[in-house]
Amino acid sequence: MKLREATDPTVWKKLSIRWQLVALLVLFLSAIQVLSLFATYYSDVQLRKELAVEQSKTLNIALQSDMLRAIVASDMELLSDISSRIEGFRAVRYLSLSVGDRQIFQYAREGSEIPTHLIQSAVNYDEPLFLDDLLIMRSAVRQDGFEYGQVQTYFDLSSYHTGIRETLLQTLTRFIVALTLAIAVALWLGRRFTEPFTRLADAMSEVDIESADFPSVSVDTENEIRILYDGYNELTRKVGLSTQRLRYLSEHDNLTGLLNRYAIEKEVEKCLSSNSGGTNTLALVGIDQFELINDSAGSDTGDKLLKQVGLIIGSNVHDNTRIARRGGGNFIILFADQTPQAAQKQCLDVQRALNRYRITSSNQTYEISVSIGLVQFKLGEYDSQQLFQAADSAFHAAREQGPGQISHYNREQPLTLQYSQDLKVVSLLRDALLPHTDNGVHFALYAQEIVPLQQQTDQVSYEILIRLRDSKGQMIYPNAFLGAASRFSLMTSIDIYVLKSYFKLVCANQKHLDQLAFVNINLAGLTLKSEVFQNYLVSAIETVNFPWEKLVLEVTETSAVGDLAQVSSFIKFCRSHGIRIALDDFGTGMSSFEYLKHLPLDIVKIDGSFVRDMLSDSVDFATVKYVNEICKLRGQETVAEFIETEEHAASVRAIGYDYGQGYFFGRPMALTALMGR
Amino acid sequence: MKTFLTQITALLVAGGVRLHASPLSLRIEPTELYAQVQTDPDAFVIVDSRSTDDYAMEHLPGAVSLPVELTYSNIAVSGQAASPEVMQDLFRQIGLSKSKPIIVYGDGKVVDASRVFWLMEVYGFENVKILNGGIPRWKEEQLPTSDESVSVEASDYVVTIDRRRLATKFATQLAIVNPNQIIIDARPEKAYRGETSSAQRFGHIPSALNFNFQRSLQKRDTYSFLLDNESIQTLFESVGRDKKIIAYCEVGRASSVTYLTLRELGYDVANYDASWREWGNDLSLPIETPGGN
Question: Domain limits of chain A?
């Protein structure tokens, strides 16, 4: 085998166990056969030698008397008799009779050569000398203790019939039979012993990890194969369980036990590619103000809420409806192969059920509502990405209509062109964000004055507002693009752009800086959390020569209240440089005064809707008043928005608001114009 | 020691029969034979070698007749013994068997009895002895004789040949060459020297020593007998004990006395029965003629 490996290891390694077995057996048998042939041949040679020696002795004895006679009383008749007698010994090729050195008679078989010279004293009497296939024997002609002469006889070893040919033929026949049997047995054994492995290999190749389908294998025997099989079965069982668990984990939301986003996308893909012909509906369901509840009531309550919402959705839809949690307070419902009416009805049921639901935490009870975006689709109408974008679009449309709304995405109707509208706006926004553009698209900074109500001052304060101008110089208002900007994650870039542009503008104007009391700049909720933004502000504080104590960052209650707690260290950093934080639109969301307690706020801006109706609605008036009192108790400055008339101005001043903002004091104007005043 | 043991054994076997002569001796005294026959008449087969007439006239009691002239094939040509076929019949008729001791006697001149003795040894009889002095000495001892014919049951004897005891022409040829063998010419010196010859040629077989058979005999008035062992040993002093000896004479008759003599001494000896009458007439054989012929 070594030889074989040395010559061509790859061939040997490529052989199956069966053929290796066959090869080894054949090799083994052949070796034995060769040995046996050698042994037979060797023993045959020995046998021939023994026969020849034996016969030479016999011949000597038989011819003894004749030889004596030939020495002492030779005559033709006698020698003729002797010749004919030797003739009978077929193996004798040659015989020579000598007296001393004198050869007196020789016999040579017809066709045999007469040796040119005889072997002399080198060979002892009766000691066999083998030369090739000849036996040469010297013996004495002796009687009564006297040596009369010597006989030298040549025997032909090959003439002895030892049956070697028959023996070899028999051996060869037996070898062929044995070889055939051995190969058959080896093949049978090979198959018998490798079959379990082949079966195992087949079973392994049939394994479908995706579906966790592990066919088990079985065997009758109780030997090592059984151990191997049991081991394999146990392994696959464990792998199967583990795979199922992992699959469950990978497909399910571990909080609610619903499907996760990945799993629902796969389900959606199935619907998109299945040709059942039915109509499917995808619904995005979002808990309104979820972050607010999560932050104010704590994440434990938030988690409880999510679980309950999942259960409520589940109990209000048909069994074949798939429900997933998308993240945050958002859920996805897939009504596969259901009529749009049925889907819509279920959505309404879900909404109604959730509207009745209350969650209590720390003696505080929260009502909830959900916004729902719906998309109906059939095979081939969308790809997966388009479908989800459409659903998003519908969902945002619902959100924009206020809490608890349902919006349908309709490809045919303009309303549902939101998505393509979004794309146009985003394109404009991206152009505007570029440092230089050819088409003239750009942002413009506007400012609206914030007027102190309780004192007179020469200084000026304002809130920076942003406007977008398209290539035709048409002005686009924030409510037309901020939604799209938010959906396409452009808010942080826009916020940074505003800050940079503002600093660039005012830092070149020291006189204006001196005159400036403070400037309010709006930040989207995500911007504060953005590492890009944080890094920008840190480096700006180091490099930009701006009186940072005059900067006020405005965050909206609805989008970012929860975030403030998460970025407390960054807020601390800002405040250490004198930057103040203002809460915008206070009162529109889920916020409570409890909320204000924990937030690092310097300024609170009460939402304009309260101010607008305060003169006619006593509740609003009380709210405006109450907010101010609370803020004062907490040492926070207050700003009243939407001051449109002198009466409003007088009222809020009387209540004690520090600042007023609104058309009564001034409409938004280009920042440059304001600075130039 | 061996002798002693053999004697004891013989005594036990013979059941008290006393043997006077040495049991190895090939001779037996008439008194001794008589004593033994008296004890057990069937202990021996006694063979008379004389002519049929002599036998009919007088013979030892119980003796059977084997006339010596019947044992030659053609004495006119050579001394060669009769053919095995003839001899087998002769031995059967007188009831000889190999196992039974045989005593041969003759007319007292030793030669005929010796010739029968030799022939019996050649034909395989192992226990053959000669009656010392023949019938004349028997009678001299006052022992009884008989003229009654003896009828015996024929034996089932089959020929065997003791080749050690027979010398052929070929054996003699070998002996000429072989220094381990000695050829003894028992004829008178004249014949040996080639002065007289009973054959065409004169002389003797090459390498042969001359020893006239008469020298080993002691003559009395009516008979002769072999000298005592000590005397004959002295005669053959020069002949090595380890040699094989072939004796010959004219017709192998006188040489059978030499044969008996040397056998008595324990030599390995053979008698060339055809003898000079064959050799001397065969021109292909070598001879020596001391006088030059």
Answer: 28-163, 206-251, 261-410, 429-675
Percent of chain A past pLDDT 70, that is, above it, reads: 92
Query: Is B197 near chain A, with CB under 8 Å?
Result: no
- ipTM exceeds 0.85: no
Q: Tell which B residues from 143 to 172 touch A, by Cβ distance under 8 Å.
A: 169-170
- Considering the domain delimited by A429-675, tell me its CATH architecture: Alpha-Beta Barrel (3.20)
Beta bridge partners of A92: A155
Q: A638 forms bridges with which residues in the sheet? A: A604
List A350's β-bridge partners, or say none: none
Q: Assign domain A28-163 to its CATH architecture.
A: 2-Layer Sandwich (3.30)
- In terms of Cα–Cα distance, which of A609, A592, A587 is closest to A366? A592
Evaluate if residue B18 carries a pLDDT over 50. Answer: no
- CATH pick for A261-410 out of 3.90.105.10, 3.30.70.270, 2.60.130.10, 3.30.950.10: 3.30.70.270
Taking an 8 Å cut-off on Cβ atoms, the answer to whether B180 and A69 are in contact is no
* Residues A146, B180: C-beta atoms closer than 8 Å: yes
DSSP string covering A180-227:
HHHHHHHHHHHHHHHHHHHHHHHHHHH-BTTTTB------S--SHHHH
- Looking at residue A416, what is its pLDDT? 47
Average pLDDT score, chain A: 84
Q: Spell out, as residue ranges, where chain A has pLDDT lower than 50.
A: 1-5, 414-416
Residue B220 to residue B83: CA distance in whole angstroms: 35
- Bridge partners (DSSP) of residue B46 are B103
Q: Which residues fall within 8 angstroms of residue A270, CB to CB, at 6 or more apart?
A: A336
Q: Is this model's pTM higher than 0.95 or not? A: no
Query: For residue B177, which residues of chain A lie inside 8 Å, CB to CB?
Result: 71-72, 146, 148
